[in-house]
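FORM 7B - TANDEM STRUCTURE REPORT

SECTION 1: FIRST PROTEIN
SEQUENCE AND C-ALPHA CELLS:
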Amino acid sequence: MMEKSTDKKIKTENNSGLKIIQPGAQPPCLQPNVGFCRGCFGWQNMVDAALSGDSVWETALIHCSETGLTVTKT
C-alpha cells in the first residue's frame, strides 16, 4: 500500500473500495502543508469523487504522475 503515513487521511487503505493497479509511494499532495501538483485535481479530491459515485471518476484510473501510484474503484 502506501509507503508513508501523513496527518491527512487517505481513503486508499483498509478496504475502501479502491483497487491498486500500479503500486507507488503516497502522492506528495497528501503531505501536510502541500498544495496541488501541476495539472492535478488533487489525489484526495479524485478519490473522493470516485467513491461518492461521480460517473466520470468512478470509472477512471486515478494516477499520480509523481509516484506512479494508480488506483481504480472496485
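SECTION 2: SECOND PROTEIN
SEQUENCE AND C-ALPHA CELLS:
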Amino acid sequence: MLSSRAWRSLSILCVAFCVMTRAARGSGGPVEMALNPALPLESAVALGLHLSVNEAEWAPLSPAPGYDQRLRVTTGTRTFALPEAAVVWRHRRWRFGAAFEPDLLGDTAWDLMALPPGYDDERDDAGVDWRSRVHAGRFMGSIGGELSGSVRAGASVFVERWSAEIERVLSTPSELAPPLSVLYTHFSSEGTGVGFGASLGIWARVHPHVTIGAAWRSRVRARWDAAAAARTDVPAALQWSEGLPSEVEGSGAQAFERHSPAEIRIGGRYQPVRRGAMTLELIRRDAGAISASGAGEWLGGLTAELPAPDSDWRVDWRLAWIGAWSVEWDWGPARTWAGVVIDDVALTEPTPLFPQQSISAAIRTGGSVRVGGAHRIEVDAVYWGERVREEYVGLSGKSRFGARTIGVRWIWLLGGSG
C-alpha cells in the first residue's frame, strides 16, 4: 500500500492532469510528469485513452455565393481516440520517467457548400467539403530529484510528431455572370512533421497541508511538407466556351509550419482534512500558429484569364491565460473530484478549420476506484461550452459551441524501489 505522502503526490498528478486536459482544442493533456517534471511520483505504469466527442452543433453559414444559405444538418458527432502511456521509476532521491502524450489541436468536419446550378459537386463530395484534423504525439523523457526534504526539481526533453489533414474550398473570381461569378477549387493536403522541446519544474511542500509547484515548457517549431491535391469544378458555360473538361486536377506539395506556444504554469494544493483537498492552477500560454504555403508553385488555373486561387493560409492563437479549480474527496477505495476551467485560448480571426473562437468554460467531474492493492481505474469527463465571438455568429448561425472529452486510465503502482 502506498504511504500517505505518496498517495497525496499521486493525487496531485491525477487531479491536475484531469483538470487541464482539453483533447478537443488541441491541447491535449499530459500524463503525470508532463505537467511538472518535478512532481514526487511513485514508481508506476499508466495507460490511458481519451475520447474527444465533438457534438455537431456548428453549421457555419456565409452570404458568399456557393455557400449554403440554410442551417444544415452537419456530419454528425465526431469522435477521436487519443492514447497515452507513461512509466515512472523511483530510486532513492531520483525519479526517472518516459511518456507518450497526445495533443489534439483541431478536429472538424463541415458541410458548407451548395454550389450554384451548372455544377455537379454534391455527387462527388457528399456531406464534407471543409475538414481539419491536426494532432500530435509527444514522446518525453524526464528526470527529477530532491533538493531537500521538501523541495524537488526536474527537467524533461521531448519530441513532437505533428500530423495535419486539411480539406477546404478555395474561390477565385471568373468573368461569368452571377451565379457563376466565382469558381471553386477543392484543396486537400496531408503530412507529418517533427519538433523538439524541453521543460523545467520545481515542487515544494511549504506547509503540512499545502504544496505548490511551477513549470515552464519551451516553444516548439515543426516544419514539414505535405502531399496535396486540388480539383476545380468547371461549370458547363466554361466547358462550352473554352473547351475545358468538367474537372481540372493537380497535385504537388504544400509546406506546413506549426509553432507550439511556450507556457508557464503555477499551481497549488491545499488539504485541510485527511480525505479532502482543493487544487488551483494558473497557466500563461504564448501565442501559437499553424500555416500552410507553397502550393502556388504547382497549382494551376483554368486559363490565363482565370488564374489559380490563393492556397496559402495562416491561423493564429492569441496569448492567453487559463485558470482551473477543483475539489476532491477520498472515500477509501474510491475517489471523486469536480472542478471548473476558464480557458482564454482563442483564434485571432474566425475560421471553420478550428473550433475555438473565444473564451470558453469547462465543467469536469470524475472518479477512480482501487482494484486490489496496486491498481487504479480512473474515468474523467469534461464538458466545454463556449460563447461565439460576435464576428463569428454571422458565419455559424449559432451563439455557442460545445464539446465533450472522456478519459479512461489504468494505473499500476509498482511500489517503492529504494
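SECTION 3: OBSERVATIONS ON SECOND PROTEIN
The CA atoms of residues 379 and 408 lie 5 Å apart.
Residues 1-30 have pLDDT under 50 and may be disordered.

SECTION 4: SIGNATURE
Preparer initials: ____
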